Amino acid sequence: MKLSDRAEAMLAGEMGPARQWAVKHQIQIGRMFDARDMVEVSQAHMMADPESTGEAGVKLVEAFAALPEDQRTVAIPMITDPRGVDLNYYDPLGQTEAMANLERRFILACRAMGIVMTNTCINYQTVMPPVKGDHVAYGDTGVVIYSNSFCGARSNFEGGPSALAAGLTGYTPRYGLHLDENRMATKRYVIEKTPGELTEWGVLGAVIGRLAGSYWEVPVVEGIDRVPTSDEAKHMGAAMASYGSTPLFHIVGVTPECNGLTDVNGSNLPAERVTEKDVAALRGSFGAVGEKVDVVVFAAPQLSLVEMQSVANLCRGKTKHRDTSMLVCTPASVYVDAKNAGYIEDIENFGARVLQGTCFYQQYAREIGEANGWTRLLSNSTKIVNILGGYGYKPALASMVECIDAAVAGEIV
Amino acid sequence: MSQVFRCHVGIGPAVEGEALVANDNFSARYDLDRIQGVFSRPQHALAGQSYVDKILVLNTAKGGVATAWMLYEMVSRGMAPGALLLNTANTILAQGAALAEMPLCDRFEDGDITALIKTGDQLSVDPALGQVTILNG
């Protein structure tokens, strides 16, 4: 892989061991994916909850943070994905002091490196959305698929270590979705019915993700007859990325790189129908009417201000069932606006708890489930019900309205 | 006679070990109980089986970015697979393998690697060469 003079200097260790580690990491990835050179990126976004990093990952970042300022400071604006512990509310969830301390250490290390703790997986709704053609190094599958598909930005899935490397160097290897040819459609799906509310968008995304089935497939979707809202697009993308490891898709007439099929070389692809039966089958695998609900979760992705308003409106004047818990995850920036608008009060008077800067599945879901006796989990997130089966939960899926009704009744209605 | 499979240049050092094979996919977050060292998602083809020190042979990577940190964390506790062989890896697995120094290979020339290798086969994996050998073949 061809390196710039600056990257060569980093590789030689002239800019300290952190940047040297970063370039070495990027060379390995570049070699695996046949990158010719590196591309400059304008932002990096790092997923690094303590459950994933463990002690080992935190120690790695602490070692970088202990270097002199010119060697440890990131080269480009760099932000973070949700944390694993809301330091204002962890003991009641059954999270331990050890978990919180790991979190505190990681935050200190990131701050020393100049990383901004935005703690959000909806930075495209809250921090700084990328623009069309913008090369970025984003580290959350939902963020990447939204930014590629709806913003026209260019990012691969950059896991925590690679986002960190990109932050330190200001580059990423030029492979995958940084290249025009890999952004062309490879699978073509024709849908029967445009989804309605958020969960329907999520389920459609999941069906397409599961059909596409690989990071290297790019679906193009026909038959969507209206422009989705940002939140609908968010749920569709997050679910598609979760079920299919899909980083980019196009919707004919909606997404910025696809005014028509020919823009994405889609005309000659065989069209596969996605029927209402396919959608119902996926949804049916997470259905459970009449069963008790231990916890209702709104997360994955974190809620936007508009979603916070919707939840608050549904909660206002009602009280949740005493045997059912409810958690709502949103970034701290949205929390402030939601508090000013009175939404936090509405949600908490209902009996639910709003967590700041976390996302349920990234916050020791197994341990908090065991500590609280939560097994039967209900959510409107098609993504989260996909993840939590492996964490010992029996997840079920319902719309936002149905989730609140279930929280009131204590069972799935 | 040993059987040799060629693949794309991979990541990490050369190793030998025993294969654990399934025609299913891989995500450290979705599929594993990383404390016990077993596949924990009930729907996974390897549910209940230990992956520790095994050379996992699976179809593709799926799900989120967490695997990129988790492989390193698993290696630090000695509770990791010995290597990963896939038909197609994604970027996250590659990044995780690089940080963890865990051997990873994909894109095999002879076809579906989950059909070519059987559970229990003794394998030699050389990512730099892009080569996997069944030693008991």
Oligomeric state, counting identical vs distinct chains: heterodimer
Percent of residues in helices of chain B comes to: 10-25%
How much β-strand is present in the residues of chain B? 25-35%
Q: Identify the biggest protein-protein contact and residues per side.
A: A-B, 46 and 41 residues
Poorly predicted residue ranges of chain B: none
The name of the CATH architecture of chain B is: 3-Layer(bba) Sandwich
Break the fold down into its secondary structure elements and pairings.
The complex is a heterodimer of chains A (413) and B (137).
Chain A lengths: L4 H7 L5 H16 L5 E3 L3 E3 L3 H16 L3 H4 L5 E3 L16 H16 L10 H4 L14 H11 L8 H10 L1 E3 L13 E5 L6 H15 L6 E4 L7 H15 L5 E2 L19 E4 L1 H9 L10 E4 L6 H11 L9 E6 L1 H9 L2 H8 L2 E4 L8 H8 L3 E4 L2 H6 L6 E4 L2 H10 L4
Parallel strand pairs in A: 2-3, 5-6, 5-8, 6-7, 9-10, 9-12, 10-11, 12-13
Antiparallel strand pairs in A: 1-4
Chain B lengths: L2 E4 L8 E7 L6 H4 E2 L4 E2 L15 E6 L6 H10 L6 E6 L2 H10 L3 E2 L7 H4 L5 E5 L4 E4 L3
Helix pairs in contact in B: 2-3
Give your account of this protein's structure:
- The complex is a heterodimer of chains A (413) and B (137).
- Chain A is α/β, with parallel strands linked by helices and 413 residues long.
- Chain A folds into three domains: 5-180, 2-Layer Sandwich (Aconitase, domain 3); 184-284, no CATH class; 295-409, Aconitase, domain 3 (2-Layer Sandwich).
- Helices cover 42% and strands 12% of the residues of chain A.
- Chain A is built from 17 helices and 13 strands.
- In chain A, strands 11-10-9-12-13 form a five-stranded parallel beta sheet.
- In chain A, β5, α9 and β6 form a beta-alpha-beta unit.
- In chain A, α7 packs across α10 (230-244).
- Chain A is globular, with a radius of gyration of 21 Å.
- In chain B, α2 (67-76) runs parallel beside α3.
- Chain B has 137 residues and is of the alpha/beta class.
- In chain B, the strands form two sheets. Chain B has a seven-stranded mixed beta sheet with strand order 1-9-8-2-5-6-7, with helices on one face. Chain B has a two-stranded antiparallel sheet with strand order 3-4.
- Chain B has a single domain (19-120), classed as 3-Layer(bba) Sandwich (Glucose Oxidase, domain 1), CATH 3.50.30.
- The A-B interface holds A 25, 28-29, 31-33, 47-49, 51-57, 60, 139-141, 156-162, 176, 213-216, 241-245, 361-362, 366, 386-387, 389-392 and B 8-11, 29-33, 40-44, 60-70, 72-73, 75-77, 88-92, 94-96, 98-99, 104.
